[in-house]
Amino acid sequence: MEMVMLQVSPKKIKSKAKLGINSWCVDTRSVLSGGTRKFYETREDAQRAIDALVKETSDTNKSSDAWKWTFYELAKNYIAQVEKDIVMASNQKATIRKKSGT
User: Fold this and answer.
1) CB-facing half-sphere around the CA of 15: CA atoms within 13 A
2) DSSP per-residue codes, 53-100
3) Sequence-ordered list of residues with C-beta below 8 angstroms from that of 41, at least 6 positions apart, any chain
4) CA 56 centroid distance within chain
5) What pLDDT is stored for residue 81 in this prediction?
6) Residues 10, 47: contact at Cβ < 8 Å?
7) Domain residues of the chain, as ranges?
8) 12-31: per-residue pLDDT in tens?
9) What pLDDT, in 10s, does the model give residues 27-81?
10) Residue 38: what are its φ and ψ, rounded to 5°?
11) Do 35 and 26 form a contact (C-beta atoms < 8 A)?
12) Are 76 and 83 in contact, with CB atoms under 8 Å apart?
């Protein structure tokens, strides 16, 4: 199974650079559950943090097919599940009506 890379790259935050504090940001909020924004002094430090994160999550990447889903596939599967739940609820209501005689 192929390894899917996290789509994260270092980004310089200009306002932090003007203040003279760590300005290279690694933002994992959109790609990891419980992800955060962490700041580093240099782009290289930020890239090393990303590389370490990729290494940490590589086992998850290999074992989880969810990493391979596109947003379209996720939406399609979600809609199919909701439709299935609607049919099940409808069948349950019909069964209850039949048993109660209404």
Assistant:
1) 0
2) HHHHHHHHHHH-GGGG--HHHHHHHHHHHHHHHHHHHHHHHHHHHHHH
3) 22, 24
4) 15
5) 94
6) yes
7) 1-64, 69-102
8) 999 999 999 999 999 998 88
9) 998 888 888 999 999 999 999 999 998 888 776 555 555 567 788 888 999 999 9
10) -120, 145
11) no
12) no
Report which secondary-structure segment, H or E, holds 43. helix 43-63
User: With 0-12 CB in 10 A as exposed, 13-18 as middle and 19+ as buried, what is 33?
Assistant: exposed
Contacts with 38 (C-beta within 8 Å, 6 or more apart), sequence order: 25, 26, 28, 49
Distance CA 79, CA 77 (A): 5
Distance CA(27)–CA(38), nearest Å, equals 7
Query: What are the structure tokens assigned to 73, written together?
Result: 């596939």
What predicted TM-score, i.e. pTM, was given to this entire model? 0.53
